[in-house]
Amino acid sequence: MARLPVNDMRTAVSDVVHAGELVVDRVFHRYVVAGRPTEVLRDVSFRIAPGAVACVVGPSGCGKSTLLGLAAGLLRPSSGNVSWDGASVRIGRNPHLGMAFQQPGLFPWMSVRQNVAIGLRTRGQSRSDAWRIADEFLDTVGLTEFKDAYPSHLSGGMAQRVGIARALALRPRLLLLDEPFAAVDAFTRLKLQQEFKTLLKLNRPTVLFVTHDVPEAIALGDVIVVMSQRPASVQRILPVAREERDRASPAYARKLAETLECLGVTSDIGDQETQ
Amino acid sequence: MKRSVHLVAKRVLLPLVAHRVLLPLVGVACVLAAWEATLIVYRLPAIVLPSPWSVAATLAELAGTAAFWRDVGVSLYEFIAGYTLGVVLGVAIGMLIGESRHFRMAATPVVELLRFIVPFAWIPLTILWFGTSYTGKILLVAYAVFFVMVVSTARAVIHVEPTLSRVGTMLGMGPWRLAWQVHLRAAAPMLASAARAAAAIGWIAVVAAEYIGASAGLGLMITNAATSLATPVVIAGMIAIGIVGAGVSACIGLLSRAWLDYR
Question: Domain spanning B52-259: which superfamily?
């Protein structure tokens, strides 16, 4: 049987470690909210094979963003372990990493182009290289004519595209995306999804992609990680086959229904987008 | 053609003149009228309250003397030296307080206590320690400015949008770069308005210190004039203080606008 891009850790815990593999191993995470400890993640385990795209779907507020923060080394799990390349993820700087945030978090004092270039500069690229690469990626997200604008002049969707360009321009080995297309209009979203797939082929990063949009997860993911309500654990891990991405096919409809069912949504609205 | 010129005059020039020139003049005229009215109603002698016109004449006369410009120069020198020192130290310490929890714990009681000891309470000590020299005044201004800047900087840095810090870390910035390139820059709008408020307080501190003990400066000029009952000189000096202070504030506003051009 072919090895799935993502395995449930409960069935294969201490497998051989691959370079470029992200492993989430029995992770628990608690926050203190208004003086009360709140459990966000409860025993979350999965792994993403090198170069695979895992889309995480789940009810809003279930801790998907927390999961990304853990993978990015921005948070430390309360217990359990997140590892990359076979070593625990360090808190702080991680040069293998590129991430697009839900709120894009552009630096308001920098032009769009500087915002995309700053990470390349920080990671040691020369200014001319950084600018050239920034221009390239701004072109891919269709913002070339806005490269000298400041973030305060951009719409929400445009700002989010700059955030995506900034993450992609780093050409990371691990790409983390937190609902990157959420604020983008439907047409641009479809276009970006297609371009995103092409871009991924360039250097095949391992991708953890959080979305609430199930059709998007089917279109982009090699595998869908379905999370439960908070405290969230992994409900199901669904591999996506190539033919299931064709939105006109019955296979797509079945996959959509299956995923929605895992999320606790009845399948008779299965041909509509969730939310 | 002629009509369009007419329209430009009506739609652009007239409102501009009205807003930038006419309205400010109305404000000044109101104050002058109240001043003049007080004189008439209470029949005050010139030694108590001279007329605006004689004060204006005195100010013009003063502006022709080297001594006046020396006093302005001394006050400005004390102010600029103290202000620069206070802003630099205040932002630096404020950054440390904002960035390091340990430093914040250690510094907060000291800062909270000292900032309520108003600069003027220090004047007797500065005279005792530094006499009537410039040093005492410079330190006094620095002190006044320092606390405004420390508190605002720390608060601004603590409240920087957390996403920006996460983005900085994700992009590969270490703690120093994050502090310098992200936090300080994100705090800029708050720092700019604090710097303007600090300028007003610093300028007040200079003049107040000079009132009490100085060998030169606008404050001393006014106290000297008051002891010889030269009331027009006193008021002219006060107006000079106001004008220089407003000028300083405007300069700082222009500088900060250049820094905040992205908005």
Answer: MetI-like (1.10.3720.10)
